[in-house]
Design goal:
By secondary structure, this protein is mainly α. Among the domains are: 155 residues; 137 residues, no CATH class. 74% of the residues lie in helices and 0% in strands. It contains 36 helices and 2 strands. It has a two-stranded antiparallel ribbon. Helix 10 runs parallel beside helix 12, helix 30 packs parallel to helix 32 and helix 31 packs antiparallel against helix 32. The protein is elongated and about 125 Å long. It starts with a helix and ends with a helix.
Length: 807
């Protein structure tokens, strides 16, 4: 292990490398363990690549002496015997393939052709004979599987240029690799997709070597052989029909994913080959290559169409879609190929949001890092570095390609819906992943460690999503669509995307506001008024389903002192605030299930939320629901009164003047605003209930009972008691006219039973209500009642009450 680490720290001289290799090869191969074999072959492959690179830069010079050549040939024979062994592990065999590919590049000469042929036969046979990789392997099987794939891809790609004189061998080796990838079964599709990504640059390098170093006739044979192998995999007519069918069970999804892995590898290879040939043609125009370039671009279009038409299990990723997205973005950036189509655009958007901008891998690093600050900061820094590497190498080309293609392709409503669905799934996943992390793992210590890498990735996610959203909706001209149903459905999807991602704050607040405003401007102004009321009933279902589940919000969060989730979950609160505001105008079009069973319970929860804007949105939604009709008002009004009164700090009532005064002083402004909303909501409900309903009496009675509790609590609660009492007096103006006298008697009874210190102030509240109303029908009756009340309480009635022209 020491020699291996030493070699990785610096490039050794040929003498040092030869001595080290000789020492490592002393034990028989059968005795050397798997880990030692892998280390040895990786070390050998690096040394062989040094020799190969030296030959490429100085082909006329003698770049390998006899001792080096003998050592390299001996090591190649050991690797061949390792692959031919019946009990070889896949990891050791894959490492041997890596070395043999590098060795073949270093041994390119007529005298070594026999050995290269033997290497090719051994590698191809091994690829065909490897058994399917199972997840039940020990020692981190998913990571081992990914490493095996990376080894085989890089080793095969290094071997192919050495076989350009034999087109049949080239095609056979490449076909064997695709066949092997078709046997892989693994659930960790995101890790697998990352491993496959290396096939694109590998194929680009191999194709460039073939195009540059071979004669014209052999070049055409090799390239056409490559194309034939890719075409056999990617053309839909030659693929298993189940790849394009809807998958209903998770078991079927694993089988489909196996086939998709082979198609994904072929897609990446086609992309790398296309870029290489396009660049080669730009430097050395070659008319015979043009048909092959166009044919490869067509293969990518077929792959994109197949990936876009494939239904993926909810817990899986579409590996072929990811591969197509990477291939399209890279080739488009390099040579503006292939031409943008809705299918390739869909693959680019899905790949960008589902893989490169996925926050789950970063959260995994942060969740399970050590609690010590130094180690945690190191883990976060490494994660941030890996994230930046992925962003620069994959995300930027993907984002640029997707935005550019969106501006070039005018999507139909159906195509726009497909793209928006991808964005909606990705936004929901990001929201849920970050929400779970915040609720379960977030602490003050972690906030200092995790903030920067998380914030950076969330910002990139938000910016990319908003730019894609604006490009898609503006080019499709959603607001002027003549198909109202599609317009409402797409607009509701846009709203759900924004609701799930608005928590991703950007450091530059102006930039954040500009992006958010631009995305919201794509929504029609009359979205929820005209669209829902004209029969687009499915549109609001998406918005309602985007709301968090009631059971999740009621759950207690141990990491936050067992507080309920709705109280400490800022992400869900921001989503509820936006969606409740959007749904408020269309409550009359909502089904009873959506309105009473889903929206109302959530709104009742958030009535007591400490964030004023969130509680206000809950109030306005309930006002709209209670204003739908008498049935809604009768069901919601009693609990609305009870819930609003829970906002009052009655649980902290105390005879201690100092503590009570502090409590009241800190919450007074919030409570006054809450009571204003409460009064308006109750008035809406009482104005909607059927005439003669005793519901108004019940609501006023509950309010007065709370006032009585405050009176008993002491003088320090008098101001709050007066404010709540004024809510009850306002209902004299909205309660059914036949119940005015009954409500007045309730109020008078409370005033008469109140302490002397409160009677005058309570009467002043009644006077302000009577004097301020413009109801010509109720005002004379209320003024007469107030005159009787004043006489009973020995209060003077101001003259302006009787001088009012409406009296």
């Amino acid at each position: 292990m020491e020699e291996y680490l030493k070699f990785n720290r610096r490039l050794l001289s040929d003498t040092e490398a030869t001595a080290l290799i000789s020492k490592l090869l002393v034990p028989p191969a059968a005795v050397v363990g798997v880990e030692r074999q892998v280390e040895t072959f990786v070390l050998l492959s690096r040394w062989a690549r040094q020799i190969s690179q030296r030959q490429q830069h100085s082909p006329g010079a003698i770049s390998m002496n006899t001792s080096q050549q003998q050592t390299l040939i001996a090591a190649a024979n050991v690797a061949i015997h390792t692959l031919q062994a019946t009990s070889v592990s896949q990891l050791s065999g894959a490492a041997a393939v890596v070395f043999l590919g590098s060795a073949a590049g270093a041994l390119v000469s007529d005298s070594s052709r026999t050995l290269i042929e033997q290497v090719a036969e051994t590698v191809g046979t091994s690829l065909l004979s490897f058994q399917s990789m199972q997840l039940e392997q020990r020692d981190q099987p998913q990571a081992a599987a990914a490493q095996v794939i990376e080894f085989l891809i890089s080793g095969t790609a290094a071997l192919l240029p050495a076989l350009t004189y034999n087109a049949d061998a080239v095609c056979w080796i490449f076909t064997a690799l695709l066949s092997y990838l078709g046997t892989i079964t693994i659930h960790e599709s995101s890790r697998l997709a990352k491993s496959l990504a290396g096939l694109y640059p590998a194929m680009r390098t191999a194709t460039t070597a073939i195009a540059v170093s071979t004669l014209h006739h052999q070049q055409q044979i090799c390239l056409n052989s490559f194309y034939g192998a890719l075409r056999a995999v990617l053309l839909p007519s030659n693929r298993c029909s189940k790849l394009l069918s809807a998958i209903g069970t998770e078991g079927d999804e694993v089988n489909r994913q196996t086939g998709d892995l082979r198609a994904a590898a072929a897609t990446l290879a086609a992309g790398g080959m296309l870029e290489s040939l396009a660049r080669y043609h730009q430097q050395r125009p070659s008319p015979p290559i043009i048909p092959l370039i166009e044919a490869l671009a067509e293969l990518l279009q077929h792959s994109a169409a197949a990936a876009a038409a494939t239904t993926v299990h909810k817990n899986s990723l579409n590996i072929q879609q990811i591969a197509t997205g990477v291939a399209v973005a890279q080739t488009y950036q390099a040579c503006r190929m292939p031409r943008p189509t809705p299918a390739t655009l869909q693959c680019c958007v899905g790949t960008l949001l589902d893989t490169v901008l996925d926050i789950d891998p970063l959260l995994d690093v942060l969740k399970y890092s050590s609690d010590t600050a130094s180690v945690g900061q190191l883990s976060a820094a490494l994660a941030h570095q890996a994230q930046q590497h992925g962003w620069n190498n994959y995300a930027l080309p993907l984002q640029s390609t997707a935005v550019t293609q969106l501006s070039q392709v005018r999507l139909s409503p159906e195509q726009l819906e497909n793209v928006l669905d991808i964005m909606k799934r990705a936004a929901k996943k990001t929201h849920e992943q970050y929400r779970q992390y915040i609720l379960q793992f977030w602490t003050q210590t972690r906030a200092q460690v995790d903030y920067h890498p998380l914030q950076a990735l969330l910002e990139k996610n938000f910016i990319a999503s908003m730019e894609l959203l604006m490009a898609a909706t503006m080019n499709c001209n959603l607001s002027s669509s003549s198909r109202i149903g599609k317009k409402a459905l797409s607009s509701s999807t846009v709203l759900c995307i924004i609701a799930n991602l608005q928590f991703c704050r950007v450091n530059n607040s102006l930039h954040y506001s500009r992006l958010l405003k631009g995305a919201l401007q794509s929504l029609p102004q009359d979205l929820f008024v005209s669209s829902f009321s004209t029969g687009a009933s499915t549109a609001h279902i998406d918005v309602v389903q985007c709301l968090p589940a009631y059971g999740d919000l009621e759950a207690l969060i141990p990491a936050h002192g067992n507080a309920p989730a709705w109280l400490v979950d800022a992400l869900s609160a921001s989503k509820v605030q936006l969606l409740c505001t959007a749904l408020t105008p269309c409550c009359r079009s909502l089904s009873e299930e959506s309105g009473l069973d889903i929206l109302a319970p959530l709104a009742f929860l958030y009535l007591l939320h400490p964030h004023i804007a969130t509680s206000t949105s809950a109030h306005t939604l309930l006002w709209s629901l209670m204003g739908v009709g008498a049935q809604h008002a009768e069901q919601l009004a009693p609990y609305y009164v009870t819930r609003c009164l829970e906002k009052l700090p009655l649980s902290s009532l105390s005879t201690s003047t100092s503590s009570a005064t502090t409590t009241v002083g800190t919450v007074a402004s919030e409570l006054l605003q809450h009571l204003q909303h409460f009064s308006q909501g109750l008035s809406t409900a009482l104005a909607t209930i059927p005439p003669g309903s005793p519901l108004g009496l019940l609501c006023v009675e509950r309010i007065l009972n709370k006032c009585s509790e405050m009176v008993v609590a002491g003088v320090c609660w008098d101001n709050l008691c007066l404010a709540v009492f004024n809510v009850a007096t306002q209902q004299l103006l909205t309660v059914d006219y036949t119940l005015v006298d009954a409500v007045a008697q309730q109020l008078q009874g409370f005033i008469m039973n109140s302490p002397a210190r409160l009677r005058g102030r309570l009467s002043e509240g009644v006077l302000a209500m009577v004097a301020g109303t413009e109801d010509c029908v109720r005002k004379p009756r209320l003024a007469t009642w107030y005159q009787d009340l004043s006489a009973a309480t020995a209060a003077n009635v101001p003259s302006f009450v009787f001088n009012d022209p409406n009296f």
